[in-house]
Design goal:
The protein is α+β, with helices and mostly antiparallel strands. It is built from 7 helices and 18 strands. The chain has helices spanning 38-48, 113-120, 136-150, 188-203, 231-240, 261-264, 335-361, and strands at residues 5-6, 11-16, 22-28, 65-67, 71-73, 79-81, 86-91, 155-163, 166-167, 210-217, 245-250, 268-270, 276-278, 286-287, 290-291, 296-302, 312-315, 321-324. The protein starts with a strand and ends in a 7-residue tail after the last helix.
Length: 368
């Protein structure tokens, strides 16, 4: 199976299956001399790992990351990147493959079971193999290294802004709230609503979709390219590659269709320090495929988890019509754990474009 690599100059290749012995990735193109410790990567993985609350899958994985290559102690004893491929490993600890024995010959509606057979003639029925969201742990690990490449001046944060029909109130947006509830919700009041709503969904053995918003602040103007290397093009590709994502939008996104030209135009003035100052950000920090220096805003919609207890009509590998009930441990709302994955994909895209920009024009922060 090909197409396991993402990026151009800064690249990540992931490997492994949900119920195999381990999953891993190789990060290539990372500049040398960047300080990195396993604990820094682990901090991001802990936000994505399963079993964190009753609202996510109860599969118990520590997601402990091991750095196998690409780092070496410098003269001060710090572990820094060497410029060579960085190999990362996470061992699977809590597979329950028997949960899938009853459905191994049936196609789960909403999953990639049918399409895998149609394409490859074989599939790993134990949790979906490569199509499992377990693979996204390695994206988060690679994204942690990408953040180190970007530096502390660029801040990437994600939040859940909608679960089912329940949207946050943006007037109550508080980034500090995302660490105080199990939903990465920036609206403390809506987090309470989601708690009772998801309890109902979970107890019914069903699932629900969600919308995630990722914001990158401190990104310099000039990243991206006007035609086939558009920054928003690569961001859309990155977010769409996440399991269960069905739509991506930048800035005003779909709502731009309802705006007039006067409303949509992000007018520009000059700030007190002589720098360009945009009066709005409907463009989501990107114009003509190139970053403007404003916050980059990206949202993506996650479909409901397809593994549910309600019987669904399907067929088996022989074409016989049947019904299926998917047992096991599944997220009632996979959008919750997609937040750190979205952050990671934002970081991977920005790190790649930062390195590509340096290769073409040099200093990425110049304003002339």
């Amino acid at each position: 199976m090909s197409y396991n690599t993402f990026g151009h100059m800064f690249r990540i290749s992931t490997w492994g299956e949900s119920h195999g012995p381990a999953i891993g990735c190789v990060v290539d193109g990372c500049p040398p001399g960047i300080s990195i410790e396993a604990e820094e990567i682990q901090a991001h993985l802990d936000k994505r790992k399963p079993g964190g609350s009753r609202f996510v899958t109860q599969r118990r994985e520590s997601d402990t990351v091991e750095i196998l290559s690409g780092v070496f102690p410098d003269a001060n004893g710090r572990q820094v990147t060497t410029g060579t491929p960085i190999s990362l490993l996470i061992r699977n600890e809590d597979q329950r493959s028997k949960d899938y024995g009853e459905i191994k010959d049936k196609f789960r509606p909403g999953h990639a079971d049918f399409t895998y057979i149609a394409k490859y003639g074989i599939r790993d029925y134990r949790g979906g193999g490569r199509s499992s969201a377990r693979e996204t742990a390695m994206r988060v690990a690679g994204g942690a290294i990408a953040r180190k490449v970007l530096g502390s001046a660029i801040k990437i944060r994600g939040a859940l802004v909608q679960i089912g029909p329940h949207k946050i109130d943006r007037s109550r947006w508080d980034w500090a709230s995302i660490d105080t509830n199990p939903f990465f919700c920036p609206d403390a009041q809506m987090a309470g609503t989601w708690t009772s709503y998801l309890d109902q969904i979970r107890k019914a053995g069903s699932s629900i979709g969600a919308i995630v918003e990722v914001v990158a602040e401190g990104v310099p103007a000039g990243l991206g390219a006007p035609i086939y290397g558009k920054l928003d093009q690569d961001l859309a590709s990155a977010m769409m590659s996440i399991n269960a994502v069905k739509a991506v939008e930048i800035g005003a996104g779909m709502q731009a269709a309802e705006l007039t030209g006067e409303e949509n135009a992000d007018e520009i003035r000059t700030s007190k320090d002589g720098q360009p100052q945009f009066l709005s950000n409907h463009a989501g920090g990107i114009l003509g495929g190139i970053s403007t220096g404003q916050p980059i805003v990206c949202r993506f919609a996650i479909k409901p988890t397809s593994s549910i207890l309600t019987p669904r009509r399907t067929i088996d590998v022989s074409g016989n019509e049947t019904e299926i009930v998917t047992k096991g441990r599944h997220d009632p709302c996979v959008g919750i754990r997609a937040v750190p994955v979205g952050e990671a994909m934002m970081a991977l895209v920005l790190a790649d474009h930062l390195i590509r920009h340096r290769g073409q024009v040099g200093n990425p922060t110049r304003q002339e």
